[in-house]
Amino acid sequence: MNIKNNFFFLIYLLAMHSMNAQNALALLTQEKQFVAGSTILLEFKTRNARKYQLYCTNSYGSTLLNSEINKDTLVFKIPKYISDKTGVVGWKIVGLKESISGKFKIVPKAKPVLLESYIGPPSIEAGGTDFTMLVVIPTDDFDNPLKQYTKVGIKHQFMTSEKETNIFTNNLIAYQTIFSPLKSGRMILSAESLGLNSKEYDVNIMPAIGTNFDIFSKRNHAYADGNQITTFTTSIIKDKNNNIVSDGTFVTFFITNKKGNILKTSGTTINGIANAKMIHPDHQENWRIKAYIAGISESNPLEISYTKVIETFDVHFSDTNRVLKVGPLKSFMNQRIPDGLRVTLSIYKEGAFVNNIFKTTNDGFVTFDLDPNIYENGNYNLEVTAAGITQTFKTKKLW
Amino acid sequence: MVNTNKIILRSVLIISYLVIISILIFLISSLFSYFNTGADRSSMLHTEVKKIDQYTPKISWKDDGNEGRYMDPQTLSSIENDYLDAWYVKHIANKTNLKNGIDDFYTKSARKNLFNFIEHNKEENIAIESTTLAHNPDILFFSEDGQLLVLEDKNVIEYKKFIKDNAFVIETTETSDYKGLFLLEDGFWRIRHLVKERTSEFDKTTLPSLLGSSNIKGINYYPQATPWDMFGENFDLTIIEKDFEIIMKAGLNTIRIFVPYKDFGKAKVKEPKLNKLKQVLDAAEKSNLKVVVTLFDFYGDYDVLDWTLNHRHAEIIVSKFKDHKAILAWDVKNEPNLDFESRGKELVISWLEHLIILIKSIDKNHAVTIGWSNIKSAEILKDNLDFVSFHYYEDVHEFEEKYEFLKKLIPNKPIVLGEFGVSSYSGAWKPFGNSEKIQAGYYKEMQKILTKKNLSFMSWTLYDFDTIPKEVVGVLPWRVNPQKEFGFINSKGVKKPAFEYISK
Predict the structure, then answer these.
(1) Which residue would you say has higher pLDDT here, B307 or B36?
(2) pTM for the whole thing?
(3) CATH number, span A114-206
């Protein structure tokens, strides 16, 4: 009884086993790792000629593959676009009750064919605090980043120094921060990995911000003729490491006059020097000048004075005192003052201010015409002011 | 006589003058207003942001700093946007085998890799419906000039369903780790390199939660005036509180309510709706009633690309109320098996499966079920659920036998009869229908079996309704009218004979 039972059990086991074997596929491919670009075949031992589909997924996408049968092996050929790309490839045979699945890894080739390099920022400030960064991604012929800890050499040249440092890839990339030298100029960089060299990259090392500077003035003469021009210049403005500041650095000159009013002029640097101009005053003046690079640095103060050119002038009344001819206005060599000197006529009637009339000289003269329709007949006080000098005419009768 | 005629003539003239003038003024003014209305001038600038949620997988940034430049929150948010969009366009491409949008999110050399798959799948007539449910990205490196970054995304949960020649082939859920190199090009963070570093089957096991009550005597509840629109404009808490009082006094301990998906705002659940739900739950707690909350009412899309939106919807509601004392259980969806035919059985089941995982990951204390519409479907996903619930509207005499059969199939999970009932309608559309007396008899019979088998139940429903929205049973009058009279209380508020058997 017992033997008979055992016998049936044995038969049952055998039957089950053969049924399982009919159903199951046995994986023949043992490799779990392939190099990108190699031909990958997934082979299974099979007993029947049934075809299967294979679900297959890599870093970029998923698809279904069809099988081929070669005698008693079932073969799935992994297409090139999957076998070329690194990463884990997962697979699973479709339509089996007991699923057969697995995964294998595709690793990049050992040697790079391209050093994909990115550098930035492209210009940095001299002085050793600012820095730029070179990122290098060595990739193989199938555009796969090389494996972790691939050695990358970074070379850089600046003036007389040439340096090389070695770094290693991590998280797909290798990177190096490069701090600026003290001097401004151009730094040249390149990368190398396993015998492959990158092209040349350059980084502009810009001067840092300017330090305090001196200013000077230059003028034809010291007369306050309202005509000549005074030029202000700076010393060569440099950064703290003696680099001349970048061309185009904006310098503003603030001029404070005797009354405390402020005049402003400005210029931008070329080779570290900024120029700015201002027309001479038309009366005696003392100017106090200071220049600034806004928010960055300032100059020493500079004081200059302008001397009077006109001591006095004539005023001739005519035509019922309604026409005033002022002049001739004469300059420092008794030459007629250049056209454009401002002359002001202030008109008062019975102590009350009536009007100011402004005119500029022409050939050393200014003529004021008082219109009877505006200025009725009567007694007026008249003041004529030119080059800071005022002449007063009391109770002039207009009629 | 002449005088009168003259007056008539004059008044007619004056009136017609007034009429003509008013018509003219009306015409001119409407012409004037026509030319002065229309689009707001500011709309010329196109300043409005037209963005709708299409893809909202759970994204949890690992905030542990990075090498290189400091990552500011604004850049991080634009990276998140572009990274998710890169996945989204890939899902679209998987589904349609078209290349639209890929150019924006993959660099020239990276997009080739996607195009290879698209071409192969197109040739083989393979479509992949795919989505990702979770991302855990971490910035590893950000270059000093802010133009390049390396990102690691661990445990990405990817779901894929393959369709070849219009037939379902295989579905997979995997968790994978990715490393990606991104470049900032044309204002887009584009994927330059992507490497899958690890992948494994997604572990679908969840921890069981106990059903908080072994003796559910319940009812499916809608207010009488607002059936299928409980949280709408006419939400009235005082009515609901009164109804809960009636339910409690009738000897019941549980209600089942429904949260409509669209009405609650889909992925962006509206705060006012949550407030209303909270008031209902608070009121139930006050009346000592437990609540089975049925999610995703009036939802029937199940599209794989819709899943992430569904998940955010469930996440917001479940995480808000998981500690509420009134909650008894979450019913993922009411009668999803009715959508098997139109949406595909595999799709609906996968949808349910992933929602169960999500809900159980958020709320570890409350039981989760699905309200199957018939006893036949009740064993689907039985291992994933904490208790099985089904609806029974068939012959009362066959109930016991069918229940016994189910009990044998599912011996170790609690079973709840989630809906049952009968309409008392008889009228023009169903002349040989039921009466209130037959309804009472039905409940008497059912209660006998329920007590005998000690089976938890929730009947359908408290009230007769005056209107049934067409989304429920359609517009056919022989369907709509019986549906109106399933209540224990008629629409005038009078208890029907069946009320006697509401709880025993």
Answers:
(1) B307
(2) 0.83
(3) 2.60.40.10
